[in-house]
Every structure is written in structure tokens, then in C-alpha cells.
Amino acid sequence: KRHLISAADLTRDDALLILDTAEEMARVADRPIKKLPTLRGRTVVNLFFEDSTRTRISFEAAAKRLSADVINFSAKGSSVSKGESLKDTALTLEAMGADAVVIRHHSSGAPHRLATSDWINASVVNAGDGTHEHPTQALLDAFTMRRRLSGVGRGLEGRRVTVVGDILHSRVARSNVLLLTTLGARVTLVAPPTLLPIGVETWPCEVSYDLDAVLAKSDAVMMLRVQRERMNAAYFPTEREYARRYGLDGLRMAALPEHAIVMHPGPMNRGMEITAEVADSPRCTAVEQVANGVSTRMAVLYLLLGGSEPAIGTDRSDSA
Ligand code: CP
């Protein structure tokens, strides 16, 4: 079985195959009938232990456009609230014949645990695990950047991407750093020192504490939400202080090169990391990212379940 657990599992060729396949899938979305028969008879389970709007709906739309049967499982309202374990939940899904399990979990490592277990014989796709990774978000972000900045069929070599905000709690940041560097982009992280993870100096990117110093050198600026729900002891400045130093407003957007785009994975905290003026401007790709997410996830499901070699992801033995 093949899985997609980490952006680190993807070689440059793997990533480009997914992005090129996503371009094919995007053409399906432009047709009057947005459906392919490719995964007819296959079952995709959305197994969500944590809240989601975009990712869950996007995977559901992607699977349905490929004609798969979709089962949506939300931990809220399920027997998880009675104490049922991940193992017993997985055994239940296996008994129902799941071919792919798209899992979001509050614990970093849960998708890897599922993929390396003998509880289930399905492909596992990580839809966000704790503060660890969100590989399909990074893929849809790369897809969006490639379309806007480099052109279809090309990589992101030499493109400069600035990721701003709560890096410490961001699985989106980690997956983006891994994938974008694989694709040849140069990433700079900008955050207050207290919102950077220990060991960030070993990541394949640069770090800055000064947003204004990097804007003019950015092809894309990715603003991240401050994840207060994951904060325990982490020091956090006041909202006004944070917005003043790390928020993107109209004045800062004007300092970007003319071709540069503003990205946000959502959900946004308008007025905090991004002003409404910037969020609603044509330079902001947040809504485009959501649309691109469906094509990208169609590509991932297609390649895992129905596509041909070369494979994406890894075998059970070496998923990271
Ligand atoms: N970007 C993202 O993962 O959004 P959701 O939490 O709404 O799925």
C-alpha cells in the first residue's frame, strides 16, 4: 500500500507528477460534468478527529469527482467520545472495506501510526496531524504558486517564499518548507522568537524576525493563523502588538514586488495576521487555494488508488 504521510516522502519527481496530474484534474473541474469514473467502486473514508472546513470538504469533493464512495467520520458524535481507540476505530473502517483513509488528528504521528499498523489495509493520507505535517496543503500551495509565478509544467526553482507567523504550531509551515525546498524554492520564516520551534536552525530555510526587511525580496508571502488553541505556556504578544509587527496590511502589501502573491491556508483571523483589505484584494490567493485543493487532492487519491507508477508516498516500512 502507498501512503502520503509527510512532504519529506516526496521526491522532486513525485511532487511534479502530483502537480502535473492536478493540472489534468483542474481541467475536469472546468467541464460542465465535473466527474471521472476512475475510482468507481472504491471507498474513501474521511476520518477527522479535529475540526476542519476546507480539508474535509475538499477531500470529499475530490473523491466524489473521481466517483469513489465517500464515508465521512467525525470524532465528535462518534464512539470516540465514549473512549474508543484509534485502533478499534480503524478496525471498524477496515471491516467496512475502506480503500483510503484520509486522517486528521490532534496527535502528531497518528497517520504514521495508522499507516504502519496492521489494523487497516488502506492507503493512508495525512490531512493534518497535530503540529507535525499537512502535506496536501503544501501540495495545493505549491500548485497555486506554480500557476501564478512559474507557469504550468515548471518547478519553483529560485522562487522566494516568505512564511509568516505561528511557525511553532504550524504543520502547514513544516510541510511547505519541506516541499518547497524539494521543488527548488527558497523559504524564509518570519516569526517572533517565541513562535519558532526548537531546532528550526536545522530546517532547510532562513529565519528572520523582521517582516519589513524581507517583503521586497518575496515572490509569495504566506500568512499563518496564530493557533491559540494549541498554546499552553508559549509567550504571545498582545493582538495589537502582533498585528503591528507581524501582520500584513495594505502598506506592507505595497512593499511587495508587483508580481508577488499573498497566500493564506485558512482559516484566517482577519485583523490579526492579515487585514480585511489584504484578504479581499486580488493579490490574495486564499480562495484560489481552496479551489486548487480539490484538483490537488483528486491527483493524490488518483495516484494512490488508481494511477500508475511512479508511485507517490512510501511503503509502510519507511513512512516518516
Ligand atoms: N487549511 C486547512 O487545513 O483548513 P481547515 O482546517 O479548514 O481544513
Automatic annotation (TrEMBL):
<feature type="domain" description="Aspartate/ornithine carbamoyltransferase Asp/Orn-binding">
    <location>
        <begin position="158"/>
        <end position="304"/>
    </location>
</feature>
<dbReference type="Pfam" id="PF02729">
    <property type="entry name" value="OTCace_N"/>
</dbReference>
<comment type="function">
    <text>Catalyzes the condensation of carbamoyl phosphate and aspartate to form carbamoyl aspartate and inorganic phosphate, the committed step in the de novo pyrimidine nucleotide biosynthesis pathway.</text>
</comment>
<feature type="binding site">
    <location>
        <position position="171"/>
    </location>
    <ligand>
        <name>L-aspartate</name>
    </ligand>
</feature>
<dbReference type="InterPro" id="IPR006132">
    <property type="entry name" value="Asp/Orn_carbamoyltranf_P-bd"/>
</dbReference>
<keyword id="KW-0665">Pyrimidine biosynthesis</keyword>
<dbReference type="InterPro" id="IPR006131">
    <property type="entry name" value="Asp_carbamoyltransf_Asp/Orn-bd"/>
</dbReference>
<dbReference type="InterPro" id="IPR036901">
    <property type="entry name" value="Asp/Orn_carbamoylTrfase_sf"/>
</dbReference>
<comment type="pathway">
    <text>Pyrimidine metabolism; UMP biosynthesis via de novo pathway; (S)-dihydroorotate from bicarbonate: step 2/3.</text>
</comment>
<feature type="binding site">
    <location>
        <position position="267"/>
    </location>
    <ligand>
        <name>carbamoyl phosphate</name>
    </ligand>
</feature>
<dbReference type="Pfam" id="PF00185">
    <property type="entry name" value="OTCace"/>
</dbReference>
<dbReference type="GO" id="GO:0016597">
    <property type="term" value="F:amino acid binding"/>
</dbReference>
<feature type="binding site">
    <location>
        <position position="54"/>
    </location>
    <ligand>
        <name>carbamoyl phosphate</name>
    </ligand>
</feature>
<dbReference type="GO" id="GO:0044205">
    <property type="term" value="P:'de novo' UMP biosynthetic process"/>
</dbReference>
<dbReference type="GO" id="GO:0006520">
    <property type="term" value="P:amino acid metabolic process"/>
</dbReference>
<protein>
    <recommendedName>
        <fullName>Aspartate carbamoyltransferase</fullName>
        <ecNumber>2.1.3.2</ecNumber>
    </recommendedName>
</protein>
<feature type="domain" description="Aspartate/ornithine carbamoyltransferase carbamoyl-P binding">
    <location>
        <begin position="2"/>
        <end position="146"/>
    </location>
</feature>
<comment type="subunit">
    <text>Heterododecamer (2C3:3R2) of six catalytic PyrB chains organized as two trimers (C3), and six regulatory PyrI chains organized as three dimers (R2).</text>
</comment>
<keyword id="KW-0808">Transferase</keyword>
<feature type="binding site">
    <location>
        <position position="225"/>
    </location>
    <ligand>
        <name>L-aspartate</name>
    </ligand>
</feature>
<dbReference type="GO" id="GO:0005829">
    <property type="term" value="C:cytosol"/>
</dbReference>
<dbReference type="InterPro" id="IPR006130">
    <property type="entry name" value="Asp/Orn_carbamoylTrfase"/>
</dbReference>
<dbReference type="InterPro" id="IPR002082">
    <property type="entry name" value="Asp_carbamoyltransf"/>
</dbReference>
<feature type="binding site">
    <location>
        <position position="137"/>
    </location>
    <ligand>
        <name>carbamoyl phosphate</name>
    </ligand>
</feature>
<feature type="binding site">
    <location>
        <position position="266"/>
    </location>
    <ligand>
        <name>carbamoyl phosphate</name>
    </ligand>
</feature>
<feature type="binding site">
    <location>
        <position position="82"/>
    </location>
    <ligand>
        <name>L-aspartate</name>
    </ligand>
</feature>
<feature type="binding site">
    <location>
        <position position="104"/>
    </location>
    <ligand>
        <name>carbamoyl phosphate</name>
    </ligand>
</feature>
<dbReference type="GO" id="GO:0004070">
    <property type="term" value="F:aspartate carbamoyltransferase activity"/>
</dbReference>
<feature type="binding site">
    <location>
        <position position="134"/>
    </location>
    <ligand>
        <name>carbamoyl phosphate</name>
    </ligand>
</feature>
<feature type="binding site">
    <location>
        <position position="55"/>
    </location>
    <ligand>
        <name>carbamoyl phosphate</name>
    </ligand>
</feature>
<dbReference type="GO" id="GO:0006207">
    <property type="term" value="P:'de novo' pyrimidine nucleobase biosynthetic process"/>
</dbReference>
<comment type="similarity">
    <text>Belongs to the aspartate/ornithine carbamoyltransferase superfamily. ATCase family.</text>
</comment>
